[in-house]
Hints:
By secondary structure, the chain is of the alpha/beta class.
Amino acid sequence: xxxxxxxxxxxxxxxxxxxxxxxxxxxxxxxxxxxxxxxxxxxxxxxxxxxxxxxxxxxxxxxxxxxxxxxxxxxxxxxxxxxxxxxxxxxxxxxxxxxxxxxxxxxxxxxxxxxxxxxxxxxxxxxxxxxxxxxxxxxxxxxxxxxxxxxxxxxxxxxxxxxxxxxxxxxxxxxxxxxxxxxxxxxxxxxxxxxxxxxxxxxxxxxxxxxxxxxxxxxxxxxxxxxxxxxxxxxxxxxxxxxxxxxxxxxxxxxxxxxxxxxxxxxxxxxxxxxxxxxxxxxxxxxxxxxxxxxxxxxxxxxxx
Length: 305
């Protein structure tokens, strides 16, 4: 089959490589336009664009799948469109342009967590199990029939970055098998079952820590928003980032108060304390919580104040 692949970030790269290694021809890769990265804001091609160039596949860069993009894709006469974390919506008439429409690799077990941030929202909710699903793209958000899925047990202490990396690896061969099945006519898609939940894109506010909440829900929140948009609170009115934390077995501490306990640095919550492991004070780089605490003038700082 003639494939058009749409994707942008690093999590889409394993799928692109898996399809490129298969029997089908990728006639074009669609990805977002170059983005400014680093302190010098140098315009940099997306990870998918870089791999497509490496593989010798023509690249179409666009932030919106508009009429011009639709016409350019239609001229390629694709049999199937494949999308993995492109970062934009496929609407009609592009949705019906390939002979077999479009399929999407999504990082959840649909219909749970339809939307832009399924892994992040799953971790924030404390889900112990998530997964990857390949489904037929339809006009409604992530609502199409599912060809295949694979469950995934979330490891203890994993962040959204960790889980996304794992699911990208799990999803790539799953996607390739579905493409092969569509090509030979054996693929069967079934309607989604159950009550949908939504996973809207995260904002900075999703990373704001309310330390009066219980420790378990705070750990779920930190895992889900790491590395982006990042977990944060305040210290003396300035933003204070919590990059890594863990549960601690210790007597209760008033919410937000930070104390040393042996080699550990603990912060109080609405229930048990958390052990701060890696933090980033305003205007400084990431550091161990112990190094940060030893450099303080205040013996018992209060976060969130």
